[in-house]
Amino acid sequence: MTAALDTRVLRITRWLLEQDQPRSTASVAADLGLSERVVRYRLDHIDRYLRSCGAELVRKRGLGLVVDGPPDVRARITADLPPLSNAPRVYAPEERVRILLAALLWTAPSVVSLEDLHYELEVSKTSARRDLRAGEPWLERNGLPLVRRPGQGITVVGSERRIRQVIVQLILEAIPEEVLLLQLAENPSTRSAANVRVPVGLRERIFALPLRDTAAIVRSSALGQTLTSGRSDVVFALFLAVSVARIRDGHAVAVEAGLHRSVMDHPIANSVAGIVPGIERLVGAFLAAPEVAAITEYLLGLDTLDTVRSDSASTSAALLDRIMEVAGERLHVALGDDLELKRGLAAHLERLRVRLRYGLPIHNPLLHEVRERYPEVHDAASEIAGLIQSAMQVTVSADEVGFITMYLSGAMERAHLRPRRRALIVCPSGMATVWVLVSRIQAEFPGLELVEVLSERGYDELQHGEFDLVISTVPLVENEVPVVVVSPLLSASDVSRLSRYA
User: Fold this and answer.
1) Of residues 190 and 160, which shows the higher confidence score?
2) Which residues touch 402 (CB under 8 Å, ≥6 apart)?
3) 423 closest CA partner among 444, 407, 393
4) Of 61, 226, 315, 357, which residue is least crowded by CB atoms under 10 Å?
5) Which residues contact 119 (CB under 8 A, 6 or more apart)?
6) Cβ–Cβ < 8 Å for 471, 426
7) All residues at 6 or more sequence positions from 60 whose CB lies less than 8 Å from its CB, including other chains
8) pLDDT-above-70 percentage for the chain
9) Are 67 and 50 in contact (CB under 8 A)?
10) According to the model, what pLDDT value does residue 194 have?
11) Beta carbons within 10 angstroms of residue 228's beta carbon
12) Three-state SS annotation for 243-283
């Protein structure tokens, strides 16, 4: 019977056996980091297992769940539960994507086969491909494009320096800060306490890094007193641990001669020199000059970072709401209510906080392309970047603006939307007539921004570069932008013709 228990069943069963009072499914879910649906789905399985062992799972109305059985039976069941490491692994989709990213990054620049990924995730190849597609945008946003090699597998393409930086980024996003701090603790007996909170597929890689050793090197050096921005000391120790592991595996960095000279001439290079002997002891070899330069370069990014203030949840929510408003106003009204866009931007803001807090570098390899292809969207993204700068008191780089552009343009492509177009209405008739027309246009085309209502003479005197479309009740000479002639009451045929432009 125990062989059929997956990791979630084991975790829920062990948790229930530890309780001496009825507990709700919401409590189970909250304590174990699962959804209530996942918990409820496994209760019958757990009950069958407990009954086979001489106990049972009792549901008490209004109170919750409790394991009913003699104390000695409960103790024996707890002792007989197989270890989590021997159980079939069951991961949430987000966990699978992170495990897949870890597999690609740890193996880079070598090729990983889809067969290996599907075996590690313990899902079908179809699900593994789906997870791969879900993780690909994250890699692109972090400057490591995914390359598929027919007949071989998948790999990420980028410099060794970039691979190490992105591994650090993944760890900071995937591992709760308090768990990471436990792994860096001086007392090794405290380190296993957090293991259950990290998916096995990540834990096996991340906690195999020499985190405690590199943290000790940083703490005992002069850097331990100077790295005060956010959690800079933690991130630097993490970067060193990743570097040591990569060097041990035969992956070396290459640093351009000009960059090498510039970073090694910086005063902070003296601080790095103080930790080099400790790193060499961990690596078991002499540290080449490019490796020292790469460590110095990374430290420079952390050393120059100002502490980012921690905004409240309400401020974050208000900022996100304002971003959505601007997207709707500047681009298309439908974007203001696009929940998928909102979730994507919320997740990106959190990643931005991580990057800023830890001084992580960012590069957008598609910046030029998105700026050229989506100029209106990029303009709106620049305005949104201004909102973020003001709310978070940080500097938002051009690369970040490019990523915001990608989120916005992606949402518009997904919904087959075009940027919000600016329209001018020309109507020489009476005011009552024109406002009937305005109301009809607003009802039929909420994505149009009506810039102004003018007479025919006013149209001749206007600068025509300020709008994208002219809607007129009389024929006009076109100047740079299309003119659509409609009836004052906007007939069905008028709506059909306007839809081609609006």
Assistant:
1) 160
2) 364, 366, 367, 370, 371, 378, 381
3) 444
4) 61
5) none
6) yes
7) 22, 66
8) 77
9) yes
10) 45
11) 12
12) HHHHHHCCCCCCCCHHHHHHHHCCCCHHHHHHHHHHHHHHH
Spatial separation of the C-alpha atoms in residues 321 and 337, rounded to whole Å: 10
Residues 6+ apart with CB under 8 A from 25: 36, 39, 40, 43, 64, 65
**pLDDT per position as a tens digit, 343-369:** 778 877 877 776 665 556 666 767 787
Give the alpha-carbon dihedral of 44, 46, 48, 52, to 10 degrees. -170
Q: CA–CA separation, 438 vs 473, rounded Å? A: 12
Q: Which residue has the higher pLDDT, 49 or 443?
A: 49
| Alpha-carbon span 24 to 424, nearest angstrom | 60
Written as six digits, the tokens of 486 are: 């409609």
Average pLDDT for the chain: 78
- How far the first Cα of the chain sits from its last, in Å, is 63
Give residues with Cβ within 8 angstroms of 102, minimum separation 6.
170, 174, 201, 202, 205, 206
Prediction pTM value: 0.51
Residue 196 banded pLDDT, cuts 50, 70, 90: very low
Q: Which residues pair with 452 in a beta bridge?
A: 424
Distance of CA 406 to the CA centre of its chain: 13
Cα–Cα distance list, 26 to 22, 23, 37, 93, 227 (Å): 12, 8, 10, 21, 41
Phi, psi for 185 (deg, rounded to 5): -65, 150
Confidence at 9, pLDDT banded by 50, 70, 90 = confident
Q: Which residue has the tokens 């050096």?
A: 221
Residue carrying structure tokens 């060499």: 280
CA distances from 317 to 280, 338, 445 (A): 46, 15, 29
CA-to-CA distance for 393 and 282, rounded, in angstroms?
Answer: 39
Q: Looking at residue 481, what DSSP letter applies?
A: B
Beta bridge partners of 449: 422
DSSP label of 108: T
- For the chain, what's the residue count? 502
Angstrom distances, CA of residue 77 to CA of 17, 51, 64, 71: 8, 11, 21, 10
Instruction: State pLDDT tens for residues 372-403.
Output: 878 888 888 999 999 988 888 777 888 888 88
Q: List Cβ neighbours of 247 (8 Å cut-off, separation of 6 or more).
A: 283, 285, 287, 291
